[in-house]
Design goal:
The chain is α+β, with helices and mostly antiparallel strands and 72 residues long. 33% of the residues lie in helices and 17% in strands.
Length: 72
């Protein structure tokens, strides 16, 4: 397999019979993902599918709540 630049990875995954995919070990290691971690799945017909660690959503919610708090 071709060597990618630091912080980059490209792979194919197959969807199993229960709709599951396996996140490659290199990617789990890159993002520090462990068994039992929660991910946020975002989907847009035009832009595709993205997975983000749950902490991403928490940061987003905190940012939105901070802005709302400043507007009161």
């Amino acid at each position: 397999m071709e060597k990618f630049p630091e912080g980059k990875y490209l792979s194919t995954v197959k969807i199993g019979p229960k709709g599951q995919i396996v996140i490659p070990k290199e990617v789990r290691d890159m993002f520090g993902l462990k068994t039992g971690d929660s991910l946020i799945l975002m989907a847009d017909k035009g832009q595709g599918i993205a997975l983000q660690p749950y902490e991403y959503l928490k940061v987003l919610f905190d940012a939105v709540n901070g802005v709302q708090g400043e507007n009161k």
